[in-house]
Amino acid sequence: MIKLDHITIKVRDYRAARDWYVRLLGLKQEFELPNSAAALQDDSGFTLFVEQATSNGTEPPCVLYFQVEDVEAKYRDLIREKVQIIHGPEKHFWGYGVELQDLDGYRLRLWDEKSMKEKGDDT
């Protein structure tokens, strides 16, 4: 099982982007990280993160989030395939998982439901 379920796009003004997507497309705000990002969800549960871009311009323009069956096992598979890994399974602001780059330098974050609940939740 693999499922694309989140995407992050970098924007000039995350509040203006949040308001635009909510007002014009009817997305619902799931949550907000003050002064940095808002999570917006469509009717099928797909989440769009609008994240404040930094001025240095070194960050990727978008990040794709894939839910996998077992993030630890997928990480081992990726290592065997010599995929460019940014970091192995660990906790970050977005939760617990693996981050890697595709052939064109786009970032992908992989996670699984069980690990996210056990290792990625601060509550």
Features:
Signal recognition particle alu RNA binding heterodimer, srp9/1; 123 residues; 2,3-Dihydroxybiphenyl 1,2-Dioxygenase, domain 1; alpha+beta; 8 strands; single chain; 8-stranded mixed sheet
Our Rg estimate from Cα atoms comes to: 15 Å
Q: How many strand units?
A: 8
Report the structural category.
Answer: alpha+beta
Distance between the termini: 27 Å
- CATH first level of the largest domain: which class? Alpha Beta
Question: By CATH's scheme, which homologous superfamily of the largest domain applies?
Answer: 2,3-Dihydroxybiphenyl 1,2-Dioxygenase, domain 1
The unreliable regions are none
The number of helices is 3
State the CATH topology of the largest domain: 2,3-Dihydroxybiphenyl 1,2-Dioxygenase, domain 1
Please state how the strands of the largest beta sheet are arranged side by side: 2-3-4-1-5-8-7-6
Proportion of residues in β-strands: 35-45%
Q: Approximately how much helix is present in the residues?
A: 10-25%
Helix/strand order, N-terminal first: EHEEEEHEEEH
SSE layout:
Layout: E1 2-11, H1 14-25, E2 28-33, E3 37-41, E4 47-52, E5 62-68, H2 71-80, E6 85-92, E7 95-101, E8 107-111, H3 113-120
Parallel strand pairs: 1-4, 5-8
Antiparallel strand pairs: 1-5, 2-3, 3-4, 6-7, 7-8
